[in-house]
Design brief:
Layout (H helix, E strand, L loop, with lengths): L38 H14 L1 H8 L2 H34 L3 H6 L4 H11 L7 H13 L4 H14 L1 H10 L5 H24 L11 H4 L3 H33 L2 H9 L1 H15 L6 H7 L5 H10 L5 H11 L1 H26 L1
């Protein structure tokens, strides 16, 4: 986002380019040894391998390191999954059954005033960032100023009641983490909204259609939204929990302690880790709580950066808004989120 004046032209839209179908040999056999390998064949092969290598696997599973890995992984999943499921369901209800035109009527007409209102409105979206990206795109399509929609996109995954409740459960002895996360996330969302209002360009945003949400029976749209969010958020939650467990087992304690002892390195390390892990905002507090070697300020940076900038979000933003948007918006958000989180942590923690 460089110093360019924002034009008054309306945001453009662009349809989704149909994916090219993979060529298939219709004359070839569908089953048997010469056919396509399916899930049944894969499962059978895995069972055979388990039987063949049962003795080495039994020894591996009894190792202390793997037991520690399993304990950390299961604890993160057990604590996070209820919040993830509840958040995905409520997010789908709001995305499908609440008219999107409501937001255009509810926000102030002046864009500068609409930004803080839209940021605060994120508290009513009890879902993760996977749901906020398509909803923000829908808001822009329905006439909401992009600055307000983007502020809503950043604030909703971090200040909604499900995420704040999960943060309180993950940090029972540090209630100031809940306040710090809400305040820092709200400030970042408003700053980014005002920056877009000042420096953003309408032609940076290219919006594809979401036919499963924009039309058709509401029941089908609801389950389509649920399947979409569960597939994305649930999959990345598993990956994040596995990564957190792996870090706790494989990374030497002295390495983590070296980073944790350096205030600057600890902040940068957890900020980058939040981008790489791509954990759902309803579950990242439990991962942050497990990184007990680091200071509360460093973990606050992790909680503020994660719901706003991570690998899955950059990918989703590229798909929903376009590559030109994501290449400017994500790096700027990362820098603003780190600086604001450090400032809030210095005051509250």
């Amino acid at each position: 986002m460089v110093g360019l004046a924002a034009p008054n032209a309306p945001t453009g839209t662009q349809g989704v380019r149909p994916e090219e179908s993979a060529e298939r040999d219709d004359d070839g056999p569908r089953g048997g040894l010469g056919g396509r390998i399916g899930s049944v064949e894969v499962l059978a092969a895995l069972l055979v391998l388990l039987i063949i290598f049962r003795e080495p696997l039994a020894g591996l599973l009894s190792s202390p390191r793997l037991q520690t890995w399993t304990t950390v992984f299961v604890s993160v999943m057990v604590q996070a999954v209820p919040f993830l499921v509840f958040g995905v369901l409520l997010s789908a209800v709001i995305a499908v059954f609440v008219p999107r035109s409501f937001w255009a009527r509810a926000l102030p007409r002046h864009p500068a005033l609409a930004v803080p209102v839209a940021s605060a409105a994120g508290v009513v979206l009890p879902g993760c960032e996977c749901g906020s990206v398509p909803i923000a795109g829908s808001l822009i399509r329905r006439g909401v100023t992009p600055a307000a929609a983007l502020a809503f996109l950043l604030a909703a995954p971090a200040i909604n009641p499900i995420v704040l409740a999960a943060t309180a459960v993950a940090f029972p002895n540090n209630p100031e983490m809940v306040v710090g996360r809400a305040v820092a996330s709200l400030i970042v969302a408003m700053i980014m909204g005002w920056l877009w209002l000042r420096l953003g360009r309408a032609d940076w945003i290219r919006l594809p259609r979401r036919p499963e949400l924009d039309g058709g029976p509401r029941g089908l749209a609801f389950w389509a939204a649920v399947r979409h969010d569960v597939t994305h958020a649930g999959g990345f939650l598993v990956v994040g929990a596995m990564a957190a467990a792996t870090i706790n087992v494989l990374v030497p304690e002295r390495w983590l302690q070296t980073l944790a002892d350096n205030p600057v390195l600890s902040v940068l390390a957890l900020a980058v880790l939040a981008v790489l892990l791509s954990i759902c905002s309803e579950a990242d507090a439990f991962v942050a709580a497990s990184l007990s070697q680091f200071s509360l300020t460093s973990r606050l940076v992790f909680l503020v950066v994660g719901p706003m900038v991570d690998l899955k979000l950059i990918s989703m933003q590229t798909g929903v808004f376009g590559r030109r948007f994501a290449s400017r918006f994500a790096p700027t958000t990362f820098v603003v989120a780190v600086l604001v989180a450090v400032g809030v942590g210095a005051v509250l923690l």
